[in-house]
């Protein structure tokens, strides 16, 4: 009986804390890796903030996000027509659509 009590005491005093201690090493390594990733992200974001604090960065952001156009610039916002399908089924209303497509392509 006393051997069981001593074994239980040793387990609770030495083995369980040792397992917790060894498990913490894995957790620390995982958290250090996550910290490195977060630090890299923060560095990238700080570089972007620094770039946007310059006149050139402000103008570039205004062009990209707001469509800003400087004096002397020309901005075209019309996209070219997409390619038209040519394999429409026969019958109504596709005959009308085929006539419109022929007109658009210049093939009457």
Describe the structure.
This protein is an all-alpha fold and 108 residues long. It folds into 2 domains: 2-72; 78-108, no CATH class. 69% of the residues lie in helices and 0% in strands. It has helices at residues 2-52, 55-66, 94-105. The protein is elongated, with a radius of gyration of 35 Å. It starts with a helix and ends with a helix. The model has no long low-confidence stretch (mean pLDDT 81).
Give the key terms.
single chain, 108 residues, mainly alpha, 2 domains, 3 helices, 69% helix, elongated
Entry summary:
The protein is mainly alpha-helical. The protein has helices at 2-52, 55-66, 94-105. It is built from three helices and no strands.
Helix percentage: 55-70%
Structural class label: mainly alpha
Beta-strand content bin = under 5%
What is the rounded distance between the termini?
Answer: 105 Å
Name the average pLDDT: 81
**Helix count, per DSSP?**
3
Note the main sheet.
Answer: none
Number of strands: 0
């Amino acid at each position: 009986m006393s051997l069981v009590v001593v074994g239980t005491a040793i387990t609770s005093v030495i083995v369980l804390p040792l397992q917790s201690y060894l498990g913490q090493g894995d957790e620390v390594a995982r958290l250090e890796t996550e910290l490195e990733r977060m630090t890299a992200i923060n560095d990238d974001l700080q570089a972007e903030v620094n770039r946007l604090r310059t006149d050139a960065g402000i103008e570039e952001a205004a062009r990209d996000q707001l469509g800003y156009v400087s004096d002397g610039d020309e901005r075209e916002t019309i996209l070219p027509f997409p390619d038209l399908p040519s394999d429409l089924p026969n019958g109504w209303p596709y005959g009308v659509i085929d006539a419109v497509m022929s007109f658009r392509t210049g093939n009457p």
